[in-house]
């Protein structure tokens, strides 16, 4: 998978699993990784969204560029979640 470190919108289930597994693998230790690990046990989409959010925030804080497909992946998950939430509340 060529996007296993950046993500992209419309990721398949397998792509999300690989993307997330790379981030939360047991040998990784950095601020926030445990939060993403816990989310992964509850909701794959939420965990992927958290990973993207934390990655984007880290890169922005370091004044590094963010790959456009990473933004697209984040926006895609947020919009899908918003749509799902609106359907439940209507």
Description of the structure:
- The protein contains four helices and no strands.
- Helices cover 69% and strands 0% of the residues.
- By secondary structure, the protein is mainly α.
Write a brief caption for the model.
By secondary structure, this protein is mainly alpha-helical. The protein has helices at 13-24, 33-42, 44-61, 68-89.
Question: Helices and strands: which structural class?
Answer: mainly alpha
Beta fraction = under 5%
Low-confidence regions: none
State the end-to-end distance.
38 Å
The portion of residues assigned to helices is 55-70%
Q: Please state the average pLDDT score.
A: 91
Give the overall shape, derived from the CA principal axes: globular
Count of individual helical segments: 4
Features:
90 residues; mainly alpha; 69% helix
Topology:
Layout: H1 13-24, H2 33-42, H3 44-61, H4 68-89
Helix pairs in contact: 1-3, 2-3, 3-4
């Amino acid at each position: 998978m060529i996007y296993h470190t950046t993500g992209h919108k419309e990721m398949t289930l397998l792509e999300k699993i690989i993307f997330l597994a790379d981030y939360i693998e047991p040998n990784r230790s950095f601020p926030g990784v445990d939060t993403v690990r816990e989310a992964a046990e509850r909701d794959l989409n939420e965990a992927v969204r958290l990973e993207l959010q934390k990655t984007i925030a880290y890169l922005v804080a370091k004044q590094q560029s963010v790959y456009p497909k990473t933004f697209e992946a984040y926006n895609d998950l947020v919009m899908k979640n918003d749509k799902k939430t609106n359907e439940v509340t209507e």
